[in-house]
Design goal:
The structure holds two protein chains of two kinds. By secondary structure, chain A is an alpha/beta fold. Chain A is 53% helix and 10% strand. Chain A has helices at residues 6-14, 17-39, 44-60, 62-75, 86-99, 111-115, 118-124, 134-141, 158-168, 178-195, 221-227, 245-260, 289-293, 309-313, 315-320, 331-341, 358-362, 369-382, 388-402, 404-420, 423-426, 447-456, and strands spanning 79-83, 104-107, 128-131, 198-201, 205-207, 212-217, 231-237, 241-242, 267-271, 279-285. Chain B is built from three helices and seven strands; from the N terminus they run αααβββββββ. The chains are: A alpha/beta, B alpha/beta. Strand 9 of chain A pairs antiparallel with strand 7 (146-150) of chain B, so a sheet runs across the interface.
């Protein structure tokens, strides 16, 4: 599998300043909205500890809770399936659909089905899959994966969406009015929902005590997908389990506040059993999760509730966009999850961070994201997965930083170079630090020289 | 069933040190007046609070608020609407509904949301089908197979708001 080159992919996105500026501002607005919402809840830090504690308890008893969930769901009339990996998940879903002669499946947003590449699998077998979430539908029509776990098309300007819809839905290419575009998509998707023989949702939380699943959306599209067709399939990552209904409140209070700064998603829907004459299937999917649970340094990432707060706060993500991470999950959480699937392919991602720790600070379930990034960097280096240039650069940096005399000489040489050399020499193609920014002016003297001068006086 | 066995065996083999399940407090000390808070948060989420008319005629109130609505489907006895939910046999029949009237089981002040539920059979993707859902406040009932917590209008709804 080819290694994802995060730097090159970021460069593609950064090529257009309008996109970068919008992306940065939009996501920062979500981050500040999150801060405002969080400051209104005085027990927020206690909620974070509770959420983390509930998740850690569940994960350390996951097999028992899965059995309890299965038992209760089965008693509610749900048919429960187990899938070891993406391939088995897709096969199970296809078999259910084939058994009901389904030709159109309408679904709400699910990162798990993206992870399993289910849409492609089903479409190859003649089943039309319709994404009903607006952002996800934009991405589907543009043949791109979601760029964000909550706002999948956030990297696009309204004019980009107008271009996609003009090509695929026949809208006016010159009309970038957001309301017009949303309305057009809604009108185009509505008949597809009405004609679908089956509906699919993901799952935000699966409650062991009740055997029910909770799905959070802002468009009501999960409810339409689940309730209009007679057949409902929910794909559930096994880490989505929580023990009891009383724990649900903790997460519901945190999810949308962390994601968008809203007190709650517009729709929080709880599905427990099929309606009369209908059928409900739950597919419990492992796909690498049990293996991750066994990883001492990385199992905490299974606590993730996919709020995207770590992405919104990350300066690297805001300026490089989700597509530059080259995988289903992007941003800081993607940089620690993706390597568990394929270390070689995603070896560059743990380096896409300033290590400022903000991702860990905003995480509602207290995942130590920046510490895991550091651990992954160690592993990538130990396994010799670093590119040659970076390896050599690190070797030189290690040598210079470990010898004070050499370090001081290097600093002086750099200061002189910045002060004396012509611009063309400094801003050459090999100096990544000179791209998209001005190199700071060299100070008249180093801190050390200033300190020594002062001491002598 | 071998995948089931494999997954459960892998999870047990991971042998993580068992963590205790924390108690979740109610966090109910010093809460603001529930009704005021509900109205405030409902507005934040794009919803509008409507007081009960003095004469109790909710039908007229809804008509006045949504004069362009052609189909008003009611699931509550206090509002007639133009279509009764009892006459709807299939979810697809709700496609032309402009305003839906539902009965919340409860409302949450902090999030400005109301909760409605369906027991089993005929009621549907109820509040998501019409452009407008109008939760009508009535005493609670008990268990349900599917519940929804609704706050403001969904982001893809048409222009009308309630």
């Amino acid at each position: 599998m080819k290694r994802v080159d995060h730097v090159s992919l970021s460069r593609e996105f950064m090529h257009d300043e309008k996109h970068v500026e919008f992306h940065d501002k939009r996501l920062w607005a979500l981050r500040t909205g999150r801060d405002d919402a969080v400051h209104g809840i005085k027990e927020w830090e206690e909620l974070r500890s509770l959420a983390s504690g509930i998740k850690e308890h569940t994960l350390t008893h996951l097999a028992d809770y899965l059995e309890e969930f299965e038992r209760n769901a089965t008693n509610n009339g749900v048919i429960v399936h187990w899938a070891k990996d993406a391939e088995e998940h897709n096969r199970i879903v296809h078999k259910i659909l084939e058994g009901h002669r389904v030709t159109t499946l309408v679904k709400s947003k699910s990162m798990l089905t993206e992870e399993c590449e289910m849409r492609e699998y089903l479409e190859e077998r003649g089943i039309t899959v319709v994404e009903s979430d607006l952002g996800e539908r934009i991405q589907q029509l543009d043949h791109e994966r979601p760029a964000h776990v909550v706002v999948p098309a956030v990297h696009k300007l309204a004019s980009d969406v107008a271009r996609v819809f003009a090509k695929t839905l026949g809208t006016d290419p010159g009309n970038s009015d957001v309301h017009y575009l949303a309305e057009s998509q809604r009108n185009a998707t509505r008949p597809l929902i009405l004609n679908a023989e089956a509906g699919m949702t993901g799952c935000n939380f699966a409650v062991a005590e009740t055997g029910g699943v909770t799905v959070c959306t802002n468009e009501g599209n999960a409810d339409l997908s689940a309730n209009v067709p007679p057949l409902h399939i929910a794909s559930i990552g096994i880490e989505k389990l929580i023990p009891k209904v009383e724990h649900l409140g903790v997460f519901i209070r945190m999810l949308s506040r962390s994601a968008l700064g809203a007190p709650i998603t517009q729709y929080t829907s709880h599905f427990r059993g099929p309606r009369k004459g209908g059928e409900m299937h739950f597919v419990l999917v492992d796909n690498g999760r049990s293996a991750r649970l066994a990883m001492d340094d990385f199992w905490y990432s299974l606590k993730c509730i996919r709020c995207g707060a770590c992405m919104n706060t990350c300066p690297v993500y805001r300026r490089s966009s989700g597509l530059s991470y080259g995988g289903v999950y992007s941003g800081p959480i993607g940089a620690i999850i993706n390597p568990t699937f394929d270390l070689k392919k995603y070896s560059a991602l743990p380096f896409a961070s300033t290590m400022n720790g903000s991702c860990s600070n905003v995480c509602p379930v207290k995942i130590n994201i920046h510490e895991q990034l550091y651990k992954w960097r160690q592993i990538v280096t130990e396994k010799h997965e670093l590119p040659f240039i970076k390896t050599q650069a690190m070797k030189i940096a290690g040598k210079v930083l470990s010898e004070p005399k050499l370090y001081r000489a290097a600093i002086k040489a750099a200061d002189t170079a910045v002060a004396e050399l012509p611009r063309a020499f400094i801003y050459n193609p090999f100096n990544a630090w000179g791209e998209h920014r001005e190199v700071p002016e060299a100070p008249e003297q180093t801190f050390r020289d200033w300190y020594l001068d002062r001491k002598e006086k | 069933m071998s995948s089931r066995k494999d997954i459960l065996a892998s999870l047990r083999a991971a042998q993580r040190t068992p963590a205790l399940l924390p108690d979740v407090p109610m966090f109910d000390a010093g809460l603001p007046p529930a009704r005021d808070k509900f109205i405030e948060t409902l507005a934040l989420m794009g919803g509008v609070w409507a007081e009960m008319p003095a004469d109790g005629d909710i039908d007229t109130l809804i008509r006045a608020r949504f004069p362009d609505a052609k189909v008003i489907c009611s699931a509550v006895t206090e509002v007639n609407g133009t279509r009764r939910i009892e006459t709807v046999r299939d979810p697809h029949d709700l496609d032309d509904v402009d305003v839906g009237i539902v009965r919340p089981l409860f409302a949450v002040a902090e999030t400005g949301r109301s909760g409605s539920a369906k027991r089993n059979t005929r009621s549907t993707p109820w509040a998501t089908c019409p452009s407008i859902s109008w939760p009508c406040s009535i005493p609670p009932t008990s268990s349900a197979t599917c519940t929804m917590r609704i706050t403001g209008p969904s982001s893809s709804l048409r222009t009308m708001r309630c």
